[in-house]
Amino acid sequence: MATAPYNYSYIFKYIIIGDMGVGKSCLLHQFTEKKFMADCPHTIGVEFGTRIMEVSGQKIKLQIWDTAGQERFRAVTRSYYRGAAGALMVYDITRRSTYNHLSSWLTDARNLTNPNTVIILIGNKADLEAQRDVTYDEAKQFAEENGLLFLEASAKTGENVEDAFLEAAKKIYQNIQDGSLDLNAAESGVQHKPSAPQGGRLTSEPTPQREGCGC
Amino acid sequence: MSLWALPRIGERLSASLSSSNHAVIKEACYEELRKLSWSGIPRQVRPITWKLLSGYLPANADRRECVLQRKRQEYFGFIQQYYDSRNDEHHQDTYRQIHIDIPRTNPLIPLFQQASVQEIFERILFIWAIRHPASGYVQGINDLVTPFFVVYVFEYIEEEVENFDVSSLREESLRNIEADSFWCMSRLLDGIQDNYTFAQPGIQRKVKALEELVSRIDDSVHLHMQQYEVEYLQFAFRWMNNLLMRELPLRCTIRLWDTYQAEPEGFSQFHLYVCASFLVLWRKEILEERDFQGLMILLQNLPTMHWGNEEVSVLLAEAYRLKFAFADAPNHYKR
Fold first, then answer.
1. CATH code matching the domain that covers A10-192, chosen among 3.40.630.10, 3.40.50.12780, 3.40.50.1970, 3.40.50.300
2. What one-character DSSP code corresponds to residue B270?
3. Which of A47, A72, A117, A8 is nearest to B238 (CA)?
4. Hey, are the CB atoms on B288 and A1 less than 8 Å from each other?
């Protein structure tokens, strides 16, 4: 299917990282399709999703790379960190081991992204309160100590899923506004107002737009 | 053309397989079996043909029963020896991961939601993983058990397999299916193990080869992807890691594997040509996409739901042509 003209002002690149089975793909699916997929097949390498959302009156297109949690795929998934404007770092509130591994995920994220990359910590499966193994407060504290945004969410009910992506986008947008994020820097993870086709380093190639742009 | 449509060839195939007629399949017969199988194997002879082509069963019919018995015993010997170690400290991560992945294998097919089937998969994968520490268990390998399991269930039933209740099988039959699936999967993986070792060099190499090949055979598709900054690794990694199983319905994978087993180096080499053929098959759809997002979404969800033998035959014929043109001509291969 051909795409509509570029009705958005920015593209933000995101990655989703975290242990296997914490629900990374389900968060993405809930965000892009507004549906919960139980037992969705595990991600091989990386998978891609996209959606446009509005932040402070600006239409922003999110390009989201959902990474496989398995260690063996790390050689491939690591190459997606560079050039991410936002990172969703996910753990499962019912499995403490996934929380305990956060510091190594964070080290990876810090080493492989640029200093401006906005990282949001997501405690997924918040609907499974009875099986909770990680408290809200300790995760909140971990996030504060490391300068991360933080939310608990449920890919199953959809609770806070929208906000997880939105909060990170707001912060990125704010960084653009106050000049702390340099759009010209290589791998900022943000592209501004593509009037040419997205991709291709935004060359001035005269690609016809599908529908009138009104000019 | 499919063997299904050619009963006489099917009969010839059956005849060359029948142990009562030929005590020994001569080299020439074995070659004929390969040739006949290339275009698709009829369901009723598929189990034994797969076992022969994979080298699991000896061509000599007199020895088959004895080899089968020995291999099946050997497999259950491994289970006895190693399976209890799944909760040991150095194996528990492997086991836990397999255990999490199994319910997510073929989630839409009821056959695979049965507890006894899931336990079979767990045993096969765990034993394979600890016997191959250089790669260990890598996600995607779980998918590769499926075609063998389904085909070897066919050996014991007449009906459709997707909704089949395995508890109606005799216990011994189920054990045979398990052991045979293990050994055939092991043989397959022997040929592609560098797909799953550290940093997955086999996959990296094949994705590069795919890119080079596509740049030779379809310039416009290749340049279109370049223009929109789509990298081959972004979509073809999964094609290699899961042998296109995520891109095709299971029935098509089974048909594809008839050819992969009939073709020398089918899984390790010919698969590359199939991937190239698969990509350019969608050239019209690809060229219609005008941005990165659209291309990625398309390439991750190619519409093959309705595919059957005919589509796979077209795919394979083109792959064969590509192989013929490029495989032995490394200079053709380079730009």
1. 3.40.50.300
2. I
3. A47
4. yes
